[in-house]
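To assess whether ligand presence alters the predicted conformation, the chain was also submitted together with LLP. Input:
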Amino acid sequence: MLSYHDQRLWVEGQPLRALAAGMPTPFYLYSLPALERRIARLKDAFPHAWLTFAYKANRHPVLLHRLASHGLGADVVSLGELRAARAAGVPANRIIVNGNAKTRAELEAAVQMGVGLIQLDAAEEVPRLADVVARVGREANVGLRINPGLDMATHPHLKVGARGSHFGIPPDQVLATARAVTKTPGLRLRGIHLHVGSQLTDVAALEVIAQEAARWYRTLRGAGYPIEVVNLGGGWGIDYAGTGREIEPHEVARRVAQAFAGEAVRIALELGRWLVGPVGMLVVRVVQVKRAWGRTFIAVDGGMNALLRPALYAARHRILPERQGEPITPADVVGPNCESADVLARDVPLPPLREGDLLVILDAGAYGETMANTYNARPLPPALVLNEPATTPEA
Ligand code: LLP
């Protein structure tokens, strides 16, 4: 997707400089061919699964349409995401509704639409959903989000399935919640769900989740509950550091098949980061190069307003210059907002830079544009999608 020709950066066969000419910076740049390649890898490894895209990771309509046109469903957590999924052409029965604080309005829209699954986050949600199905007059398929109490190796903000977390139903309440759902007219218990963390880079962690899910599946089936769908959530890690290693779908598929050997179960996945992270980048422009305190600070026109991940999670994204050159100077790339946290990356090897030069921040396709904000009254960054005839300028 990225290469240098005559020391200038090209993206999917086009010079970045030409692509950026018509765009205000900072802007997001997405590659549809790269997205296609990742969808193909996923579908190849999981041909029979209920594959959904976690809408919180990216909201660009062109990407959402493309994902939907390949048959991917949607994992949504708000009315806005529910509407985006329908607008992208996702059939209602491929939508999974998640969330730990679903409002009655959100539940009502989901039930009215006839979504594939509504995943309960708490025993306390049963009576609320019961009211909604009674009022709407339609039945709803329900999954239980189980919090298995597994502590995964990732950033503390990205763990959601450890003991004490506010997400999901704790193990000691699962059977009672299953019973309550089954006793409620209009609710059909169909699935279980485990999503315990994000950016999990070791496939062994995904194996542990699959085994834990299989254990719950067998327990609930054994107790007479007609569980058909096991949703293993998302969480697959990507290669932010550029080591060449990332979660390989076939490896996950093999471990999932082992965990569920002999079971006629339908596996569901809700992948966000893995599908779209590597297909997007943030393009920023150098505003000023400052030398102070024995360091070099490259101030650029987009920081924690455009890409919040470094400030919020100490996430490290690779940064490449549009124009290669020698010598390489370690520099701190800083944003324009009045916050000490507004540092995109420290000690980045970069050639000498001057005002107006472009830099690209890699792997920004997931949780980049969706978490952008208007801090310091800056506008939200626009986006350009490569290979989309309507928006691709002449290269
Ligand atoms: N399913 C559920 C129930 C989730 O809560 C999430 C993400 C996903 C699926 C998708 O997870 P993924 O495949 O993308 O790891 N803003 C953070 C990530 C927060 C993830 C929240 N939940 C970041 O920028 O790293």
